[in-house]
């Protein structure tokens, strides 16, 4: 009997010990979860500034109209007492020349807009900011990496080793110029909605303004359109910008997701959906983007279309670009995460190869650079580059209507691209 009592007492003690241990484990596991929740809440509060007006977009986005002086840029220690430059000192000469040129398709005259405009507009002295949700942040690999590109994502045409380029899983089809000092770039970019195979992949079409070497200190300003399920939680085609001054390591971000870009425009929201989109064999739509360095103040400005000067990146954000760019690139980029050990079927551009031409393949037209006299001109000595032309390709040309142009893109995985 005593033995039985001893055993049951021993079992009870063991059971109690196990309960205590498991409670401690749950508490320990709970602490990081609670901490993460708090970190996410704090970050959301930092990003989502108080709005004077809120607009619900048909695509589910919430656009907050935030007072221009309360935007995230002014959290930057160097911008505490910054006087907002409400307009650039100078515009590049020749900026509207292409409006005199005949368009190949009258459909292009239709104005491209953003979907949220359907439900309202932001008041004067406010800027529209796409609200970040908890889910947006939780999709990121970490809170620290939210809103950032991965390291080593710049197409480097001069690299002799294609394996080195592919190691980041990013693939490109681009046109580029180098060997001069560049003070800006412009392009009219055909807009599509490429299919994305995996949520962690994206497809974009953009221009890059690059300063420095392709090392750890690379400076880059980027703008264009992208489809990125990870970043936005859907497959919509969205206007975006990006900047970095250390090759994507610690500085910079997409859109307004960190301090940096100062927006002055109340009509265009970074990261919001673009509408309408080109259709294969149907109506074609394009957007025009200009980024240039103000010769007086030294800030890098961005303009969308002929009507919207969006804002600027203060020159102190950069080292090399505080002076000028050494290379300009235009074109497409996708992430190839090699699902199932095969090439991704994520599309670039329209998902069709350049040789299919207008209405079927995606294009950049009227590509230009800004020279030291603040003039827009056709780039000299344009090169092209792609890591795997059987997956995504590029073909450039020149004519009276489109100036310097190229078609680019492709379907990704196919019998010729494994």
Number of strands: 20
Number of separate helices: 4
Largest sheet: 9 strands, antiparallel
Instruction: Name the structural class.
Output: alpha+beta
Q: Could you name the ranges where pLDDT drops below 50 across 5 or more consecutive residues?
A: 1-7, 24-29, 98-109
Write down the overall mean pLDDT. 89
Distance between the termini: 74 Å
Q: In one word, what is the shape?
A: globular
Helix content bin: 10-25%
What order do the SSEs take from the amino end to the carboxyl end, as H and E? Answer: HEEEEHHEEEEHEEEEEEEEEEEE
Proportion of strand residues: 25-35%
* Rg value: 25 Å
Give a brief rundown of this model.
The chain is of the alpha+beta class and 418 residues long. 14% of the residues lie in helices and 30% in strands.
Structural description of this entry:
Helices cover 14% and strands 30% of the residues. It is of the alpha+beta class and 418 residues long. Strands 6, 10, 12, 13, 14, 16, 17, 19 and 20 form a 9-stranded antiparallel beta sheet that branches. A 6-stranded antiparallel beta sheet has the order 9-8-7-15-5-18, with no helix packed on it. The protein has a 3-stranded antiparallel beta sheet with strand order 1-2-4, with no helix packed on it. β16 and β17 form a beta hairpin. Residues 164-418 form the Neprosin PEP catalytic domain.
